[in-house]
Design a protein that fits this description.
Distance between the termini: 55 Å
Number of helices: 4
Shape: elongated
Mean pLDDT: 76
Low-confidence stretches: 52-56
Strand content: 5-15%
Order of helices and strands: HHHHEE
Strand order of the largest sheet: 1-2
Structural class: alpha+beta
Helix content: 40-55%
Length: 105
């Protein structure tokens, strides 16, 4: 299925905007405010096209990628191995300001 030129033009325009915002050092909210763009629209295009650092493939559909394995490293040795096994905290800072905390006490 061939896409229209206007769709491709919009995608290229948004790829450029996403890349420009990333290089600008401004927050997304500030960038959108300064350029008259709705923040929700910016996030929609970013989700659709990626972060602006790469061009979308025109010949193949976008593929979903999985996150790489994250090695959290070994825990420091504890005097009491029971205490080490019973207590831990893992905190992940995710995109969009989401924080995931897993705690065992």
């Amino acid at each position: 299925m061939k896409r229209s030129a206007s769709v491709e033009q919009r995608e290229l325009q948004w790829q450029e905007r996403l890349a420009h915002q990333a290089r600008s050092g401004q927050s997304i909210a500030a960038y959108c405010r300064n350029h008259g763009i709705a923040v929700q629209t910016f996030y929609w295009w970013r989700a659709k096209l990626g972060d602006g650092r790469r061009q979308p493939s025109r010949s193949t559909p976008r593929q979903r990628t999985t996150a790489p394995f994250i090695d959290l490293g070994a825990r420091a040795p504890a005097e009491d191995t029971r205490a080490m096994a019973d207590n831990f905290n893992i905190r992940l800072e995710l995109p969009g300001g989401i924080m995931l905390t897993i705690a065992r006490r």
